[in-house]
Amino acid sequence: MATTFWPSIAAALRNTPHTTRAPMVWDPASLLMSRFGFGIEAKTRADLAHYGLDGWWANQVAFGRGAGAGYAGHAGVAAQGPLLKNNPAAVRAWLKANGNEYGWEAMDQLTRVTLGLQAWSHGQVYEAVVDFFANHLNVANHSDGVWTTRHTMDRDVIRKYALGSYASMLLASARNPAMLQYLSLASSSKKAINENYGRELLELHTVGIGAGYTEADVQNSARILTGRSLDADFNYTYKPERHFLGPIKVLGFSHPNDTAEGGEAAGEAYLRYLAYHPATAQRLAYKMCVHFVSDNPSPTLVAELARIYLRTGSQIVPMLAAILRSTEFWASRGAKVRRPAENLIATVRALGVGPGDLSKSLQSLHWMSSAVGQVPLDWSAPNGYPAVAGAWRSSGSLLNLWGYHRGLAQNWYDGFADLDPNSLYGAVKPRTSGEAIVQLCGRLTGSRFPAAHQAALQTFLGEPADTPIADSRLRWYLSHLIPLILDAPQHALR
Amino acid sequence: MTTPELSTAERLTRQAEQVSADLAAQDASWQGGWTRRSFLAGAGMVGVAALGSQLVTTRAAYAASGLSNGNTLICIFLRGAADGLRILVPATSDTGLDYLTTVRANLVPASTNRLPLAGAPGWALNSALSPLLPFWGTGELAFVPAVSVEGVTRSHFQAQQCLERGSDTATTGWLDRALQQLGPGTTFRAVTQGSALPAALTGNQSKLVMSSLKNFSFPGWDGVAPQSEAALRTLYRGLPGPLGEDVPITLSALATAATARAKAGAQNGAVYPGGNFSTALADLATLLRAEVGMQVATIDVGGWDTHTDEANQLDRNLTSAAKALAAFLTDLGPARRSRVTVAVMTEFGRRVQMNASGGTDHGHGSLMWLLGGGLAGASVYGKWDQLSAATLDSGDVPALNNAYDVLGELAQKRLGVGQLSTLFPGRTFAPLGLAKVG
Question: How much is the pTM?
Fold first, then answer.
């Protein structure tokens, strides 16, 4: 099917043939919330019905830019991250006063708040976009030397510009203490050039390895950014005496770079050149399509996003909106596999288990995401967590996730509000065992299961579909059936 | 079993035939609307997981020659760059002790903490590794110092990727390409202990990533586990993509894992210390004893980036690592471990000179440790230049020996990989003569 674009999101949806990958069935709300959010909650359907798709989108963007910006998407969760408001010196002072000057509390708070917002923030679109860019400009949380600064990358770079312009985000990242530390820019100087940042800037943050730059370009990329450094309090500072002097040429960019005082501005000019480079547009568009649409997006969709990027001066929201205005997006249900932590958070949201004791539930989510190898922001390498399914194959993770489905449905874990499994039926109580299965599948996965799958669940219960609910073994097995539904491909895919 | 002892290859071939039959039967029973087309088209080399048995591809039945020779290569990666100079210590003037004492006096183990190695007069082992010393005596411990590969920088990320991918441009891991050459194997052919796949195994070959054998069971109430597993087989039957393969593989592996787990428990008087690494090794020993067809296994161990207080930090790590490895080798016993070779590696070595914090910064040439069966003898293999300001590479141990040569030799002689050119593209193979064929 050729990708077409429409003036509004609703029009794109209307003009998309009802296409999905089996066994998923057509359900635009589930699709939307599994890509531009961390999974559907029961109440989202009401919101979508009330505001319409385009209205809902506008609300989400406005919320992420306004009332829900930063960590404000959920007040209770934000309150679990008091250190995230502080500058590096204040964080260090707090750590020292609390017994360990080199402690991990600020990094841990960032992890926990991120998980909490993914699970419960009202700004789901904002959280999804933040997750994308946090991985695109990855600075591993819990890595060397960022224990007082990592949150500034999240707060002042990723969250600040996630619904703004990529050029601004990139320029801010090139002055961020955590980024400077993580990719060794802070220790690069004219006497000892460290190529780490200069290389990743080209390879990962902007034009990509196929853009045709040379090793000499990499060296120049590192040279022009020397002088960007940290002061004793781990704040960004430019030190002219460390700046390399001499003409710089990288790809089509050249600069005389002949004064130490002008070195910072020369770097800004270079970063802007890279930000607005067509190869950057193409690469970011491609990554965005892989993240939000499918592991193999069409060239048409990628090209349209790249075109918008260049036309709007790297504005992120119009690119995202173009995805939603495409038929390719709405026809893509089932094209992505939920990565382990996405499966975990989507399970919390599908079951509707709220945070009972936030401090404990966020700690639970932290160890749970750790056991499946996907603690948010913790990917150690600069390329961010892989976005494609092939990178996540693990039997151990499958068994862990199946365990989480059971644990969350059966109230095993600290900190979550107890789930009454009967509440998942909603207002209309099923009359038979078969109706119960259909209702639960729809509620939990947004899919009507094919007959063979329904039959498998019926076999699990050990009774025919027409068994009256009063006589059904669901009395004992409901809390075992619920996780089994969440184990199914209808929840594992998105 | 009353039939005569079968060789591993014969046993696996029989399993393969059984699995073929099972799959044909399953094919026939699949319901309308489902197709297995994508299974075969999507992943290329990798086929479908088996039912009762453990083979992952139907083609195994026709590819007996490609089956495992019964040997196993275990790659242990010390993440963070372990300081080889404090592990295998240049212990005489000839190897560089004098220079070491001038630039890192506090990091050279005291003479009482340096264990001499018979037949390797210039070298001594940090006494934290004393549990491993008996294996030097039996020819089951060896080292390669000053080891690195082309294109490695002093960046952890870049260096790890470079070593594990087998070249600085490859997009899959060298172990994945080794598996590809070895042909089909069992569900347990490639086991990673941990929660994520290391770069060395990135690629299309099927592998089993498990965090622990103990927890490798169907979760929740046992009373509904068999019914749940049966339902899951139906729910994933015919599903295209990785999950359509991984769910059946996982379910198939449960029974074998349970059988193996039933035989868990250290043998031969081995005593494992605490810790994740130790547990992972104990799991591997259990799987090896259960003869599940494991060809390669990987374990990652963090905590080696000793920028500060190295003497204490590193020795603490070495003590527990050595105890765990010694327990593992003891647990297997001489006969079983003759088919198991362990390679311990790290992304690069550390700066020779100590820094201001009692630690060391990022360096270059590192140390590989080899343990277990199939070694050509207890020895320090490869080249070494007496350490001095003149012989160092920008203050670091130079790269005199190539890690691809070491890994390639193990792959070829121990696993039976034929061609090394796809494992390490661009490398002209120059084996050090450290392993035996077979």
Answer: 0.81
